[in-house]
Design brief:
Blueprint: E1 5-9, H1 20-28, E2 33-35, H2 44-54, E3 59-65, H3 69-78, E4 82-89, H4 109-112, H5 118-126, H6 132-144, H7 147-159, E5 171-176, H8 187-193, E6 197-202, H9 208-211, H10 213-223
């Protein structure tokens, strides 16, 4: 069997920059991984086709956070890749929150350029795990994504519907303890279609893969 490769699929920012600390920790633990950004692709459908073409002959673990969770689910359902396991973090399969309605009324510039002091911004995004590197990576991620892309992805969230198919691969769902963007009830959607699901809750805000990267990496290593 080929060595298993972890594909890190980013959340709504789509850049992958925010995965850098986790990627480094996984590599240090001997886990081969690659960050696959969403932003270079026209939409999530083109992204799916790209991944299916690039990794057709490899044994994979999909690691998907937030917005990417339903994309990883689609890949598992399509079954065009040899997906051995999945790791889903702070994610959803249906409209996660009524906050997605705000996209209709506000410019996405409030996400790209939040008017908050850096210390407050860091605590809001990453909780007690905040540091200057994460804040800088967030700023780089916001420069990489367009307002149009952000608006399209939030609009897409509002239309998501629970898949009818079941997924049998072993799957770890990492839940953030203080996630006000993706409330805990979103886990129930995964329980309905993932027949081999385990759950790990970590102390973190929504950005659990960043604010608590060390425990995320350890949880992923133990799961694999």
């Amino acid at each position: 069997m080929n060595k298993i490769k972890l594909i890190l699929m980013p959340g709504m920012d789509g850049s992958g920059f925010l995965y850098q600390p986790l990627s480094e920790l996984l590599s240090n633990k001997g886990l081969s991984n690659v960050i696959e950004p969403l932003n270079p692709h026209q939409d999530k459908h083109a992204y799916i086709e790209y991944l299916e073409d690039k990794y057709a002959d490899e044994d994979l673990v999909l690691v998907a956070e937030s917005y990417a969770g339903h994309i990883a689910t689609k890949l598992a359902i399509r079954a065009n890749l040899n997906i051995k396991k999945l790791v889903i973090m702070a994610s959803f399969l249906e409209n996660p929150t009524k906050l997605t309605e705000l996209e209709k009324y506000f410019s996405m510039n409030i996400i790209k350029n939040p008017i908050l002091p850096e210390k407050v911004l860091g605590m809001t995004l990453f909780g007690s795990g905040s540091n200057s590197r994460l804040i800088q990576l967030f700023k780089e991620a916001m420069q990489d994504v367009t307002e149009k892309q952000l608006a399209q992805r939030i609009s897409d969230m509002r239309t998501l519907q629970l898949p009818e198919e079941n997924i049998g691969q072993p799957t770890l769902y990492i839940q953030a303890s203080n996630d006000w963007l993706v409330p805990a009830r979103n886990l129930e959607s995964f329980k309905k279609i993932y027949s081999n699901l385990s759950v790990k809750q970590l102390k973190a805000t929504h950005l659990v893969a960043q604010g608590n990267a060390q425990e995320c990496a350890e949880s992923i290593r133990d799961f694999l």
